[in-house]
Amino acid sequence: MKTTNSLGPGREETCRKRGRRHRRVSLTPYLFLLPGMLLFLAWTAYPLLKAFQISLYDWNPIPGQVSPFVGTANYTRAFDDPVFWLALRNTLMYTIVTVAGQMILGLTVALLVDRVVFGRTVFRTIYYMPVITSWVVVSILFKYLFNSSPAGLVNYLLVDVLHILPDYVQWLSNANTSWIAIMSLGIWKGIGWNMVIFLAALQSIPTELYEVAAIDGANGWQRLWRITLPLIRPTIVFVLVMLVIGGFQAFISIYLITGGGPMQRTEVLLSYMYNQGFKYLDFGYGAALSYLLATLIFGINFIQMRFLQRRIEY
Amino acid sequence: MRYRIQRQLGQMLLVLVLSIGAVFVVLPFTYMISTSLKGQVYVFEFPPRFIPSHATLNNFASAWRSNNFGRYFLNSLLVALVTTALELFLSSTVAYAFARFEFPGKNVLYYTLLATLMVPSMMLIIPQFMLASRLKLLNSLTGLILVYTAGGIAFNTFLLRGFFEQLPRELEEAALIDGGTHLTIFLRILLPLSTPALATVAIFTFLGAWDEYVWALTTINEPLKRTLPIAIANFHGAHASDWGLVFAGSLIAVIPVLTVFVLLQKFFIKGLTAGAIKG
């Protein structure tokens, strides 16, 4: 969606230029391209193709050793692997919960910050802080907050301060409660990003629309559903697509908080892929898993863009 | 009059609700800071205290000195700075070629670049690891720099090309007539006009390199080559119960970033919302 915008005017210009210059091929553009493209080709394009090749072999990581070609065996192995399905289910669940949580809370905060007069920059800064803090640090921090002892902050708040829970919880020794820690981290860290994007969209809505609606007697709720949300629809789709991509790539928080445990119950696709590759040195299976993940992300994006994106007229 | 009072009440309610939310956002950070100021005996005191009863900077001193965090800090700084400089140079030259030239293969190359934006970066880690091992780039900060830089080229080229194409061409055409080369035009005209876009690229590249964990975790084994994120995670593994020390180390990594963010906010926000608003 970004591409169409920035290519539009450029394309006209280049057509004009082409006519004037008689298509003389010059070396100059290639010299400008060379260093950057070399690095890109070596570390992104080539690995992308190489990963596919590896996924078709029972890859032997020791140099010089023979790696037997196994065709699609690594892919069919995934379909028969219960941990793969569990990891897939966990990934989907994590994505759905954190994307919904981030979008709802992020949009709510954006609507409030958009209207507040006092301290707008301060609020924006505070809500954005978790976004720029490293995943490693906040993962370890949440592990500490969800500590099982009574002095763990979450336990203390829920049991002794708010009296919501009757007893202290061993958060990280059980898959379900581990997910609460992991997902609340995902949502907490993402609200600020959602807020900033939604805020920019809200500020681009012409205020006359609200004035007209107010004259017509629309209340706040109606204005939200009839004016605001339809007008920021492209942004909602953009945020959704980006967050889903992000959700499927959840790794560091899970790797550091539970390590996929207990008993691989909190494994997600990337943590499973990483373990296959670098714990069991099964590069072939790891590469196959990464291709399955990429295909999944590609497919879901395609469906989202196809069905959700409609042209909007101001 | 009644309308004004209503509005003021509304504003107060807004501030109240936003403040409650802000408390939940800030709470983990403040607790991290207070834990880092506590001696080991006080870390698990009950009830938990936000304001330590015996505040001390010992954890910071011990993290920085005896636990090598000074070294890791320098490693991270070096990697992030060199990555940022390389990224600025490489993505702006590539973007310039795409923005101002017609050449055979242009569209194929550009769309190859764009297509990789949807690829999760971790998907490439196995072949990247093999390549790094063949090029003797394991256990090497150069290996980190090259992979971080390469990882950003597609997106930053896309961003800068969009920016370059919005700039008027008249100046450049005049410079060409006056006998300037494309290199001087690029360096003397285009880059100075593009400082806001370059600042955005620089900030996000620096932040990405400063925080990167997975590639460093996979390729760096030698203790002296660690960057801050792996040092913190390792540290947490080794001193699992010494939370004060772990968070002192974490804050050494986090505080510079937060400071820069508060100072350069406007570039952060601009970079984030570039291209995101109009669908």
Structure, explained:
The complex is a heterodimer of chains A (314) and B (279). Chain A is 73% helix and 0% strand. Chain A is mostly helical and 314 residues long. Chain A folds into 2 domains: 1-55, no CATH class; 76-308, MetI-like (MetI-like fold, Orthogonal Bundle). In chain A, helix 4 runs parallel beside helix 8 (175-203) and helix 13 runs antiparallel to helix 14 (283-308). Chain A is globular and about 75 Å long. The relative contact order of chain A is 0.12. Mean pLDDT of chain A is 87; it is low at 1-21. Chain B has 279 residues and is an all-alpha fold. Chain B folds into 2 domains: 2-56; 63-273, MetI-like fold. Chain B is 73% helix and 0% strand. Chain B contains 13 helices and no strands. Chain B has helices at residues 2-36, 58-64, 69-100, 106-115, 125-134, 141-166, 170-177, 182-193, 195-211, 214-219, 228-238, 243-263, 265-273. In chain B, helix 3 (69-100) runs parallel beside helix 6, helix 3 (69-100) runs antiparallel to helix 9 (195-211) and helix 7 runs antiparallel to helix 8 (182-193). The model of chain B has no long low-confidence stretch (mean pLDDT 88). Chains A and B meet through helix 1, helix 2, helix 4, helix 5 and helix 6 of A and helix 1, helix 3, helix 4, helix 5 and helix 6 of B.
Structure summary:
The complex is a heterodimer of chains A (314) and B (279). Chain A is an all-alpha fold and 314 residues long.
Features:
heterodimer; A: 314 residues; mainly alpha; MetI-like fold; 14 helices; 0% strand; B: 279 residues; 2 domains; 73% helix; globular
